[in-house]
Amino acid sequence: MKPVRHVREFDVVMLRGDDPHLLSYKPERRKIRIQFGNGEQADVELTVGGPVKYLRILGDKFPHEFKLSNQPTRDELQVNNFSYKCEYGGQRIGIFWGERQEGVMLLGQRPEYHIDPSPCFHLCAGQVQMNFPSLGRSTTLYLDGEKQLADIGSGEQLVVRFINKCKRLTINGTLIKFQFGGPPFIISLNGREIEVSLSPLPEGVIPGIGRIPV
Question: I want to staple 103 with a disulfide (CB 3.0 to 4.6 A). Which of 13, 32, 92, 172 is the partner?
Fold first, then answer.
């Protein structure tokens, strides 16, 4: 699987540098198994990515809410407005059940992936490379308005964000003057200067106009 970019509540996979597509799970059926402290258990069948399902369990007075996310980066189970990170076929996790905690397991194999055939330029316009010549490193940046981390080695990371439809760039909250495909610029980090450059934009992407989402 290619690297996946999480944009707002969506997962985006880059089939090429300028070809973003929505990634999700297929709407397959899966069961969750709730194991109560008194030894009883209940199975709930859900559609991955389907609507919230309301069920009364073991005679409870009020129905409970269940939902399975179709976002591969999250594998998220929602029960009664609480979200839990879980794994298909994995270990039991604790969930809130009223005023107590109970165990739940997500049964079955991970659903198959679905890649939408239409590009999702409204979420991400593509990707570029951020290069650090003096460090001999580079990292991928996605052309959207979300914050992203650039790893420069030795456990250090930069917080990078494109703004104004990629006309501007902030690094660690500081506005940077730059040019895609242009000469390197200098940033300061922990008392030292680091040389940085950005690769050219994908064909058809123009800062400030067109398909750039933010």
Answer: 92
d(CA 40, CA 199): 59
The model's pTM: 0.80
Question: Are residues 75 and 133 located together in one domain of the fold?
Answer: no
Residue with structure tokens 């994908």?
A: 202
CB atoms near residue 106 (< 10 Å): 22
What distances in angstroms separate CA 66 from CA 54, 77, 79, 210, one per listed residue? 6, 8, 5, 40
Instruction: Give the residues of the chain that fall short of pLDDT 50.
Output: none
Are residue 74 and residue 144 in the same domain, yes or no?
A: no
Whether the Cβ atoms of residue 140 and residue 127 lie closer than 8 Å to each other: yes
- Interval 72-91: pLDDT, tens: 887 789 998 889 998 999 99
Please indicate, yes or no, whether residues 88 and 141 belong to a single structural domain of this protein: no
Reading across the β-sheet that carries 10-14, which strands appear in turn? 4-7, 10-14, 20-25, 113-119
Domain count, the chain: 2
Tokens matching residue 25: 């799970």
> Angle at the Cα of 150 (from 149 to 152), degrees rounded to 5?
135
**Residue 68 and residue 194: Cα distance in Å, rounded?**
44
